[in-house]
Target: Kynurenine 3-monooxygenase
Amino acid sequence: MSRSVTILGAGLVGSLLAVILSKKGYKVTIYERRPDMRSARIAAGRSINLAVSVRGWNALEIAGIKEAIEPIAIPMFGRSLHMPDGSAAYQQYGKNNEAIYSVSRGELNKKLMTVAEEAGATIFFDHRCTHVNVHTNELTFQHEDKEVKVQADLLFGADGAFSALRSGYVTADRVDASQFYLAHGYKELTIPPAEDGGFRLAKEALHIWPRHNYMLIALPNTDGSFTCTLFFPFEGAEASFAALKSDADVQAFFLKNFPDAVELMPTLLEDFRNNPTASLITTRIFPWHMGDKSALIGDAAHAIVPFYGQGMNAGFEDCTVLLGLMDEYGDDWEKILGAYEQKRKCNGDAVGELAIMNFVEMRDKVADPVFLERKRLEKELGKMFPEQFISIYEMVSFSHTPYDTVMKCIKAQDALLERVMNVPNLKTIFETAAFGDQLKDWVAAYHTSVKDLDFGPAARK
Ligand code: FAD
Model:
């Protein structure tokens, strides 16, 4: 020991990584493009709030800030669906009352920065990395009107989807990199608190207005408001950002398609006009590291679309896996970074795919009766065969099962559920002894087909 560590980006993942490395005894310096959000009034970034699930909690616990975040986290035990005809339905997420938790991105990021500093890390704000020489680890920053050069020893790129370190990797030989934009973008809107300060919708749920090719969602904030996000095509004749040109277009569109939400959104027109329309990107890259010199982490390694609420959770899991490898390999960074890439690259790719698949589920399938029946059956199977069957959603959100394993289970679960759903008179036959035996065999066959996969450690929360 002990190498000094430079981290690009004091976002969620960079700050958490700084906590972990500082606690391990490394001298850590972070360079962050933006001013310090604890003193400047700046937006925290790409969403007001985000959902923390079990992988994220595990990392926060390791960083020692779980207790500090818990009071500002609102549990969401299920999806509340708002249909076009004004009716509503509710789908519980887990069979054991598990929840995902809505947390303010800004508060979480601020706390992580403070804990990183308390652990010994130094953060330089207003330093935008403009160039990385990936062979020498020489960094160039723009700071105010000056160019600043820094020589890094061990370097991590935690600087998000458009990472400067990632750009450096892309210029190197034998690096495969790709990016993919959805045809949809998003815009944040607001449902303010009720006059008495309470919530205008059920507080402990993630609200969805699924409309096939697009959707509106809302997550609760501790002040009684909800932050809504409209996921919507950029272009298209009728339902698209391009088509809604005037306030009148926006008002008419919302009244027609989200009538129950419009009533709760007094600032809809200002929000729609003033808030940016942002794009949704998925990135992949290989390799994730260069020898013992540098590595990508969080969105810099795997930017994904937000439909599984896993981007930050996956980035936090990168950090906890890295910590485990430090415990295993001491300060042999060649080994640590090689093993990190080997363990995490496949999971970064898998969670990216899962996220795109969940977009279709959220905006389209959740309103379909056949899909709802399937969800009900998944819960039944999970309760009847807890050792053998856990649904895909539960594996992603409530377990530490590697995302790559989750992807590998999808086909086998589809086959099992299809078998069960094709049984005639399913509702009445479910309870019969003969069907019970049949079901046992089918579930056992499913379990046999997946049981040798790596399911990771059991969930902790
Ligand atoms: P970022 O949060 O992007 O942080 C990167 C940091 O690096 C920033 O502080 C940035 O200013 C800094 N930086 C960038 N470039 C430079 C540079 N050149 N030099 C110096 N500093 C630089 N994830 C979830 O787990 N749950 C959710 O519910 C969820 N909801 C989301 C909703 C939306 C609408 C979006 C867009 C994303 C959502 N995500 C969610 C994903 C989540 O936001 C990201 O995965 C997470 O922010 C990644 O953290 P990061 O630290 O890797 O990158």
Remarks:
- Residues 291 and 334 are 6 Å apart (CA to CA).
- The mean pLDDT is 94.
- Residues 368-450 form one domain.
